[in-house]
Fold:
Amino acid sequence: MARVYNFSAGPSMLPQAVLERARDELLDYGGSGQSVMEMSHRSSVYDAIIRDTEARLRRVLKIPDNYKVGFFQGGASTQFAMVPLNLMTTGEADYVVTGNFSKKAAEEAQKFGKVHIVASSKDRNFTYIPSDIHCTENASYLHICENNTIFGTRYPVLPDTGEVPLVADMSSCILSRPTDVSKYGLIYFGVQKNVAPAGMAVAVVREDLLGHAAPTVPTMLNYKTIIDADSMYNTPPCWCIYMMGLVLQYLEEEVGGLDEMERRNNEKAALLYDYLDSQSFFNNPVEKPFRSIMNVTFTSPSAELDKKFCKEAEQRGLVNLKGHRLVGGMRASIYNAMPIEGVRALIAFMREFEKENG
Ligand SMILES: *Cc1c(COP(=O)(O)O)cnc(C)c1O
Structure:
């Protein structure tokens, strides 16, 4: 069996040990005689799985007791609507636009109230994160996208929002390093980048922000509905939650937690950025202080060479390196599950390609 190094922005690689464990348990989970894919979500076996998954997330992320956790269907994109529907109590909110997903989040929020774009990095094609971020007077919250998956930037420091709750889309950076959850009012993430197979988003919400949704908010879009029912209001994405539990167990027991995960991620990213900085054939457009450690963008001298690069890389088992259609070029997503050997193999190929085509 030949497994490739998959640099996709999402869905993306999962740790091989996790896939093997899922395979071993596929037909008979824990002596139950059933697959997790088949079992009732109301069974005691499944109840233990979902409780364990939430407990592990709380331990790994060090989530304080006054924050609630919920598992939601509809991906991160549904959270773009749920945030304003539940939190926009003043009818106004602040958004920082640093890429495509933050723009989409702001546009969705506009359907429900007044949105202030308090800062944007559009002027330099989203190659940096604005530093001068201030909340407007009447804002219910300030929304950021902490790691910009498409453009390859991240916030080096969080904006100071004072008493205004900070809401962050952390889809492409969650669990990549330690996070001080107490600095946020709400964190949400789609799981398919760093946590599990596709099919779910997780929200971590400070307790006092819950329970203020208007009565007209659909039941399933009210955070309180799902959270009050321990994510069992209706049938949850059972398999996805189970897989997330396995990934978290791997993070806790094999990796040893988020400090070590961050060390490994920094090491991988540094290898790639150091190489990019050492030559002039490939170019990384991002301003240095804002470089993401999860998504690394780069271009070759021409669109034709970009295409050739992706094609030849694929023949070497280095797949999904094509950049997002909005930016072109290449993007290597090097999430938690990308082994350092994958990054080394990519750099070795880049060196060769540079020599042959430079
Ligand atoms: C992938 C991604 C999304 C969209 O996620 P879906 O689950 O496909 O809706 C939103 N925000 C960020 C930062 C992402 O990386």
About this structure: Residues 145 and 169 are 5 Å apart (CA to CA).
